[in-house]
Backbone:
């Protein structure tokens, strides 16, 4: 084994557990919104590592933050605290509703912490009967057993033994359905302000306001899963800031680390106190490397210039997609917000999101799907205008190859 050991995509099936089906190329280098594969072919990246690479690849500010911290201190565990974690927590508190922060390493772990905290809070303030968690059909909250159980896509929880109890699902954006299910037994309601994996579907402001009112009425916690929608993705630091509806717990991951694995759960003093010493933890959570990178991401993302740039880039992409659709009747609706965009396929193209993704890759463009009927884009928040224009040309060529 050495650096010079030759590997390629065909090795994947030999050495990896077969739970993924990666596309047919191996990227080896990235810069900004471009990636290069083993053959030196370039790709424009509108996938952004699934809404993670908020500042593109190898952003100089993030490389600097990472390498500076790498020469100082990587890991100490939570037996000790560290400066980057304390600074990042203080900045997240300053920028949001939160008064306390818990760090984890992935979106699923941040949600796991949120659900456990909600249950602990309810158990200590109202007793064991108040444990029911209500989530939405088609929602996605991660892949641990608790988070697939809360998630509203049964295919992710089936076949893994007895499910976690006390969880039910209601249709998204349907206040009446939620109202009928809520009671004194409800401990928390979990919402993605924009359903990402479920098809890039935004919640309406009226729905979020109604959910908040129902949570207040039944003394239940409102949890916003902003793992995908947060950290500038929608043109505000967090998507909840568009609606003015403030949650009790918010989870962030993906763009938070800009590519370094880190996640955070934000909450108030009142709720945080129910995670007393020893109740929950993570060996890596809040490690200095991850926190140093995320602190730099937050410094760069949470500025008016960057956030306004997200709106401008949305405009450019949405107009370009509609123009393509005038040529090939492929998209019937462009939805989402900022740089979390879902292009909904028309009847004639329904079910072909994977075909579009593969054709785009053959034409030097990376896009995502959100289910079989939606092409999803989640590029860098600072993708240059020229890359957006070039990406639209490559998408045009990809669509032409499929239409022809
Ligand atoms: C991606 C995602 C998660 C899971 O995050 P991981 O880092 O993969 O564990 C949870 N919730 C939402 C809304 C997501 O988009």
Residues:
């Amino acid at each position: 084994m050495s650096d010079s050991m030759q590997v390629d995509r065909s090795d994947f099936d030999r050495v990896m557990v077969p739970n993924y089906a990666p596309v047919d190329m191996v990227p080896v280098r990235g810069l900004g919104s471009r990636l290069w594969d083993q053959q030196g072919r370039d790709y424009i990246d509108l996938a952004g590592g699934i809404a993670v690479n908020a500042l593109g690849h190898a952003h100089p500010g993030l490389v600097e933050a990472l390498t500076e911290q790498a020469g100082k201190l990587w890991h100490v565990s939570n037996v000790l605290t560290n400066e980057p974690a304390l600074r990042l927590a203080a900045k997240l508190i300053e920028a949001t509703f939160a008064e306390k922060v818990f760090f984890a390493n992935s979106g699923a772990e941040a949600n796991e912490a949120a659900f456990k905290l909600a249950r602990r809070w309810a158990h200590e303030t109202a007793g064991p009967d108040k444990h029911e968690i209500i989530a939405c059909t088609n929602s996605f909250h991660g892949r641990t057993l608790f988070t697939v159980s809360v998630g509203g896509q049964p295919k992710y929880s089936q076949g893994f033994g007895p499910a976690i109890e006390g969880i039910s699902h209601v249709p998204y954006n349907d206040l009446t359905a939620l109202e009928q299910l809520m009671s004194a037994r409800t401990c928390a309601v979990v919402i993605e302000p924009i359903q990402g994996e479920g098809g890039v579907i935004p919640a309406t402001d009226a729905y979020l306001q109604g959910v908040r009112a129902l949570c207040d009425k039944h003394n239940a916690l409102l949890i916003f899963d902003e793992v995908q929608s947060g950290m500038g993705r929608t043109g505000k630091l967090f998507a909840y800031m568009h609606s003015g509806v403030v949650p009790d717990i918010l989870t962030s991951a993906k763009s938070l680390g800009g590519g370094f694995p880190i996640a955070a759960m934000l909450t108030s003093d009142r709720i945080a106190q129910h995670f007393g010493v020893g109740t929950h933890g993570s060996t890596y959570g809040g490690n200095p490397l991850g926190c140093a990178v995320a602190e730099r991401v937050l410094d760069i993302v949470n500025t008016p210039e960057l956030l306004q740039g997200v709106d401008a880039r949305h405009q450019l992409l949405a107009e370009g997609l509609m123009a393509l659709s005038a040529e090939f009747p492929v998209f019937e609706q462009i939805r989402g917000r900022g740089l979390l965009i879902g292009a909904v396929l028309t009847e004639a193209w329904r079910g072909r999101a994977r075909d579009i993704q593969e054709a785009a890759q053959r034409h030097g463009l990376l896009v995502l799907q959100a289910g079989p009927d939606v092409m999803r884009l989640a590029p860098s928040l600072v993708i240059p205008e020229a890359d957006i224009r070039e990406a639209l040309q490559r998408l045009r060529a990809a669509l032409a190859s499929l239409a022809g």
